[in-house]
Write a structure and sequence with these properties.
The protein is α+β, with helices and mostly antiparallel strands and 377 residues long. 28% of the residues lie in helices and 17% in strands. It is built from eleven helices and 14 strands. The strands form four sheets. The chain has a seven-stranded antiparallel sheet with strand order 2-1-13-12-11-10-9, sandwiched between helices. A hairpin with a 4-residue loop joins strand 6 and strand 7. The longest helix has 13 residues. It is globular and about 60 Å long.
Length: 377
């Protein structure tokens, strides 16, 4: 196999100004391609290395989705279970109609959280969250902040439509309540430790690995500018964001992607999920929604949404990849592609906020370079 086109694709991204980037392709537990380019420090004196860690941001979501599926395997909750049975504050969930508080006609369930149709939004800079942190000396937990979100009105009836939102964060809180463990510990014991992912965590305080410098794209200056390495989605030291909180090396994240592509079993033989759970997770769920057009995906228009992940649902714009290929991307440019049909995975990491305006559909482009190399088109 000639991976030169993939190498050239990475070089083109570096030429566009991406300071550090890493790409790993695995198939059936075998690493087919692994390349690191660029510099991990702002002065660009330290070459990027496989030991560098990146904020995954929304690439945390597939891990949270897997954790939720594991929780269901363990009987901790069910897909149709009301969220209020796990997080009592949601018994008082409400809508605003003509200025009056109205009880929703639909009961918010775990399914609504996992399909981003619960009526939540992505506004975490709100008074209810600030009050929760103030009540707990700046250390409100995942559950305390998730329940604080219930103080504000829902945007729409649960189940009415897709809306990108804090659903994965509330899902993480539901896992905390159901398991009796912090979400961090649940993910650690069920996913990270079995797969040997020692450089992945919700906390960077005592991290043994260096954090790659974080940048953002400045459209006016047409270049990247250095940013503080703080993750703004981490709302307190005790808040483990299921939507955006993980930090990892690309190699660690690739171990997760490989396991999910291979029926829930990692390279060491450790099982994190049953194959049937992965099939449920990647099944397309948007077709029954009344506003499917509100879903968009940076990997192109042929994707729907499963249980917490994008999923390839059709071939209206080419036949690259496979039906049910799934994953997600992150605010700084990380991406995960998982293809159980071909037992194939691809993980890409970089650290540039605002990357879509800089690079366009970069993950779609990498996907479309990879599959012909492997004769999978």
């Amino acid at each position: 196999m000639n991976f030169e086109p993939l190498h050239e694709a990475m070089q083109s991204l570096a030429a566009k100004g991406v300071p550090a980037l890493e790409l790993i392709v695995m198939r059936d537990h075998e690493t087919l391609f692994h390349e690191v380019m660029g510099y991990s420090d702002a002065a660009r004196t330290v070459k990027a290395a496989p030991s560098d860690r990146y904020w995954l941001y929304s690439c945390t979501k597939p891990v949270t989705a897997a954790a939720a599926m594991r929780a269901m395997e363990e009987g901790l909750f069910e897909l149709e279970q009301p969220v209020a049975e796990l997080l009592p504050a949601y018994r008082d969930a409400y809508l605003l109609k003509d200025g009056a508080r109205v009880k929703p006609e639909s009961v918010m369930t775990v399914r609504h959280l996992m399909t981003m149709s619960a009526g939540l939004n992505y506004n975490f800079n709100r008074a209810s969250v600030r009050r929760a942190n103030e009540r707990h000396d700046g250390c409100a937990t995942t559950v305390e902040i998730a329940e604080a979100l219930a103080e504000d009105p829902l945007d729409f009836e649960p189940g009415a439509r897709f809306q990108y939102s804090l659903c994965h964060d509330v899902l993480a809180a539901a896992i905390e309540k159901a398991s009796g463990m912090t979400f961090r510990d649940y993910v650690r014991t069920r996913i990270l430790d079995p797969l040997g992912m020692k450089d992945t965590d919700f906390d960077t305080t005592d991290a043994p690995r260096a954090l790659s410098a974080l940048y953002s794209w400045d459209g006016e200056k047409k270049r990247v500018v250095l940013q503080p390495s703080k993750n703004n989605f981490v709302l307190s030291p005790a808040y483990y964001s299921g939507g955006a909180g993980l930090c990892a090396t690309a190699s660690d994240y690739a171990a997760f992607a490989d396991a999910m592509a291979c029926g829930g079993v990692g390279g060491s033989g450790a099982r994190i999920l049953e194959d049937a759970s992965i099939e449920r997770l990647r099944a397309e769920r948007l077709s029954s929604f009344s506003a499917i057009q509100q879903f968009s995906c940076t990997c192109g228009p042929d994707y729907g949404y499963g249980l917490g992940v994008r999923t390839r649902s059709r071939f209206d714009h080419g036949v690259v990849s496979a039906l049910g290929e799934f994953g997600w991307d992150g605010a700084a440019g990380a991406d995960i592609l998982i293809d159980p049909v071909h037992r194939l995975s691809m993980v890409y990491t970089q650290h540039v906020l605002g990357w879509p305006n800089m690079l366009g559909a970069v993950h779609l482009q990498l996907r479309d370079v990879l599959y012909p190399i492997l004769n999978l088109v």
